[in-house]
Amino acid sequence: MIIFLLFLSILLVFSASPKCPHGFPLHFERKPTALNNYTKDWCIAVVEYEGMGNRDRARSICITINATLTMPENKEEFIAIAKHVQARNKSTPHAIDGEFTPRCKVEMYRNQEFNGTAEKGECNVHNHLFNFDDVNTDPTFILSHFTGGVPNARGSNYGTGHPTFQYVADCLVLENTKSPNYTAPIGVTDLAYCVGAASVKTYTGSLFDLKREISSVLCGKRPE
């Protein structure tokens, strides 16, 4: 009898469904692949906090709750996140994982005609254009649903007798989670400035506004 009860206990332990930690209401079952580090289950929270346009602040918020910057892996996950955002009236857009590599940003500064979609080398959007914190999420879906080109916002400051300083929107954000067309996401990925700066002043005295109000971030972690 004791052996039988022990056997049942072992079965219950191994058959129990993964449970997401407190504060992570979204649980996703995934197909394990090499691109998502063979992850079967993943938990996501949409965390609201001011200043999430600054990527280091957004990253710190996730680390504080023992999580990492993350993103939806497919259309179904995006729809679930959109429903969650709509039901709770959370702020949009959302900071998500992914920022241009320094090497590719240099290529953009050198080549004003740089096109991350048409680029043949490592800086193609589907190659190594981005660095990611989250090794448990396949970024293919996100990198296939941009709202515009890559990069889609850039500029420079210059003046007579002074060097030219360039800047480019370099961090990924998730859009359209409150759109009525969210059930058929076409453009859900956009770019914002990682620094989250309010503006950049030129030598002529004009201001270029770089700020984008981003007050929420997607954090992810494995279930308990």
UniProtKB/TrEMBL annotation:
Signal sequence interval, chain numbering: 1-15
InterPro entries the UniProt entry points to: CTDL_fold
Keywords linked to the UniProt accession: Signal
Name listed for the protein in its UniProt record: Uncharacterized protein
